[in-house]
Every structure is written in structure tokens, then in C-alpha cells.
Amino acid sequence: MNRKKWIVNKCDKDLAADIAENCGVDPFVAYLLVARGFTDEFLVESFLYDTDICDPFTLPDMEKACERIKSAIDEGEKITIFGDYDADGVTSTALLYSYLSGAGANVDYYIPDRAGEGYGMNVSAIEALKERGTKLIITVDNGISAIEEIEKAKELNIDVVVTDHHQAGDVLPDAVAVVDPHRKDCEMDFREWAGVGVAFKLVSALADCDVYDLLEAYGDILAIGTIADIVALKGENRILVRAGLAVLNDALQSGTLRKGLKALIDESGATKNMTSMNAAFRIAPRINAAGRMGSAERAIKLLLTDDSDEASLLASEISAANSERQSTESGITEFAESYIESHPEIKFSKVIVVDGENWHQGVIGIVASRLCEKYGKPCIVISKSGDVAKGSGRSIDGFSLYDALSFCKDILVQFGGHKLAAGMTVETDKIDEFRKKINEYAETLEEILPVLKLDCKLNPASINLEMLSVLNILEPFGAENPQPLFGLFNMKITGIQPVGSNKHIRLTVNKNGVSLPVMLFSVAPEDFPFTTSDTVDLAVRLTQNEYMGEVKVSIQVKDIKLSEVDDDEVQKSLSLYESFRRGDTLSPEQKQKLLPDRDFCGSVYKYLRANNGFSSGEEILCYRLGFKEEKLSALKIALDMFIELGVINYENGKYLLPTESKKVELTESGIYKSLL
Question: How many helices and strands in the chain, by DSSP H and E?
């Protein structure tokens, strides 16, 4: 069920007016902040203006970590940074390596191969580092769960300093120091750094200098890694990213930016002003692609190189890897969706677990994200390779994947991650058992429905460049501080124009005499379910667009629905349908709501016959038929019965009529019988 319930944030207008006056904030910005939960002046001023960065020594074991690292530098011991292959791990490694090499350390780095080794430390790698002469390993963005691996390092007389930001288990690794804000004994107010944020705190402790001097040196890498890891851009993360982006943009304008970053920005076609959104959608995917489709060392070399020619070559290679990643991801996503659609027991489960042979491990996390968005529920994608399978999952707000995997830990080889994103390893012959158990866990929770949160409703007449400019104070945007999403309600569609070789649509919508052009990207005209004269609600984002020297507000549609439809009733009806398809026990009253009678089925079939099928989704079909929202579940049952009996076909999201009509009895349907 991918239908989201739209919720408009509530706001105390009087409180917003007071905050606007007392904090010197634009009234519209104050309104948005109050709607997002900033309900007193201290919270508002802290969010907008705070520049305080905490003492790194408040992190657990930081003093021990610094003492051991400084000793290694002084003694000339070989230090190896044990990193990770994603953008957070790459930037963490590059940042710490850059500092330590500049401090005179005998340092190198090791990045495990995603396909061959997987995430985190492994015994074979530690043995290889022993052969290389490593005396001290510093982990970045990993290590908190490497209990056995760090024991092996101790056996080989290699000390380990762990720096990580993932959830700590009940037992900490027996390392010289374990620097992780998620340790249970950590009492800090803010703990939400990315791995690169924890690495920066380590450098801050080692350098013992003004932290803003360090931001001048490393803020660009720090900002990109933090944005890439999708950690909350609040508290200190907001301060660090804001400062880092300022450093990056100053260097970009002055021509002093790192050669690798400059080359990558040029390859990406990013604008001259790097925002958090540009970093998230143009830069981070390319850095991630280096490790997904080959060696992440290319990305580290890119961030460290002083050679323009090498930077251009590496940036070109990484962009090519990103294109390959997109193609591979699309192929697996298409296959996974087809498999899910043909296996109702998976499609209608509360947690979708789909597996395939030798799916590229570098993209299964992205595929999981695509499936999570499509089906509106937690999704785990597993790649099988022999006796062992590795999976990556994505979730929706309210369902912690980490907690769910913890519930299943007795049948997993290993797991780790966060609430909304996690990875795991499982024996191939236990995948079905895992699928069953994680859904047993989901059954213990209250039903969680996907939600679309709108910051506020907009009057179309109020949209202008001035409104857009005052929103800049809310930057940088990211997790838990998203780019504002606005609602344009009861807008009449007056024009539908294909653009971009029929890949996108420009709509013209009107309300109270105000006409607005809005863009709907990646939707072909034939897949657009609405028509002119339909009245719709639009969830939109506002951006600035410059064309031929003229600057305008660009309105981009993120979601669209019929204005007359009751969200709550739609959700109830869809939930009932999914419960039935999942095999839940239903009451006689619930079965009666689902069971379509002969006249109902006749109306549906006549409409399909008159329109030569239908391809705009069941909710729109329900509306076109004039049925109430509560009948949506019965409509879906009727369509399922038609497909079962061969009356209609369903292909690629479209209900089609066969070339020859077929007369059947509805009572012959197994679905019909199960509802009696």
C-alpha cells in the first residue's frame, strides 16, 4: 500500500507572530518553525544561530584514543585507518588520513571490498594488515560490532581504536578505546553525528586547536560526508554542515577548492553554489558509486589528490561508475518489483523481504529504498551467493529496522545499522525463516502507515521570489530538517503539456483566478491519471530557476491527489484489503465490506469495457465510478476476481480486456468463496 496520508503541520499563529517579533525572524519563517515544533524563542535562536561545538573529550574514551594515537605518531608505528566503502566511510577515511599524514604519522588506510568482504572489519583483513606491519588500527564508520575481529587483532598484537556512530550492542569490543556516541554510558545531549562527524571530533581532540580553524581545513569533506549519510541535520550537525558548505563555496568561488571536489562538481553539472540538496543528489551518489561498482579507493584518492589531471580522470571514472550503478539498480528494481507483484504472500506482508541470486551488493540498498517508497512499508533486499546471503533494508517512520533485526538476531549471522536503514547477513537456507520472523515482529506493533507531512497550505497568490528568498535561513536542508513541502489545495487542472520528449509534464492549475505552471517530473503523459477539469491537491517544493537571464520560482510537484477524496477512509479501506490478502482473520462485518455483489461487479466491468481497460490506479477508478472511498477495498477485490476468472488481464499496472470476452460466474471465484 503506497498511498500516503497527507498531514498538514499545525501551527499556533499567535505564538509564531510573537517569535517573529522577538527573534527578528520573517513571519513566514517563524510560522514554519513553530509548525515544525520550535515552540519557544530559545529553540528558534539555537536552531538558526547557534555556533557552539561541543568539547570532543566529552565523547567516551576520547582521551584514551588520543593518548594511544599520539604515542603511535611519536614512535613511528604503522597506523592503518580501517574505513568503509560508502560516502560516509570514504570521507571519514580521507579526513583522518589527511590530518594524520600532515601530523607526521606513518599512516595508510584499508577499505574492505564491498562484494568480497562486506561491511566492517574481518579476520582476513586484519591478518593482511599484520603482514603490512600495522601496529595500530583506527576504525572510522565501523567497528562497534567487531567483537571477534578485534579479539583477533589483540592476538596479533595490533591495538585498535574504534570510532563509530552506529548503535552499540550490549557488549563493547575489547579495544584500546571505543569512541561512539551511542554507547549506553554516553550522557551527551547530542549524539547524531555521521561517521565522518565522529572522525572530525577525533581530529579536533588530537589537534587541540580552534575548531573553526579545523573546519577551514576539513569542513568541505565533513559536510559532504554528513549529508551523504542522511543523519539528522540538527544540533551540531547543522552547525558543521552549514560551516562546511560555506568553506566549500568560498573555495569554489576563489578557485582554491580541492582539485578532486572541483572535478567531481564539474562532472556532476552542479550549480556554482553548492547546497545541501546538490551535495545529496549530485555529489554523494557519485562518491558512493565508486565503492558500489568497484573500488572505493578511487574516491579517497580523488579527495586527497593535488594533481588536476588525476582529479579529472578519477572524477570521470567515478561518474561512469555512477551511470553503471543507475543501470544495474534499475534492472534489479524492475526484476524485484515483478517478483513481488507475482507473489502476493510477499507483496502484502507487513515487511517485504525479496531475494535474488547474485544481485549486485553495491545497489541492493538503493533498490530497497525504491521498493520502500513504492509499497509504503519496510523492505529488505537480499542477494544470495552460495550458502551466505547479504541484505540491505530501508524503512518508514515508526518502524525501526534495527529493532526488527535485533528480534531476529538468533537466525542472522550479523546485522547493524539504524532505524531507517540497516544491513544483515543470513544463511541462504534461513531466508524464509527470517522473512517469517521479521513479519512476526511487525505483527506485535500497531499498524504503521506511510505519511506525507506538509509544512503548511499556501495561497497560490502568495508565491513569489521574496517568499523563496526568506527560506534560505532554514538551510541546510536534510534529514529532520527537510526542504519545506507545501500544499496547494483545491487546484483545478486547466492544462496538461508534455515536455522533455514526453518524459515530464507541465501542468497549469488554477484557483480563484490565479493560474500557476507546475512541473511534474518523470511522469509520462500516458501515465498521468488526471484530466483537465479535475480538482486536485498538490504537494510542492519551491526552487529558484534562472533561464535566459530571468529568475523565476519553479514549482515542483512531489505528490498529487484528488481534492474530494477522504484520506482517512482511503487508508482504512486499503488496510482492510491488505489484511485480507495477507490472510489475517477477519470478522463477518469486515468480510461483508469486502464482498462485492453482482451489481457492483457489473458496474465495474461495464466501465472497463466502455473505456477499453484502465491504467490510472484503483483509487482513481473508484472516483470515476462514483463510489465512496469505503468501497475501494471491494473494488480491488472485484478486480482481483476478474483477473482470477480471466475476465480481464493485469499487465504493468494496467487493467486490460482480452481480445475475446468470457462469460463466467462470480461464485466460481476462490476469492469470492473465501469471503462467504
Answer: 26, 20
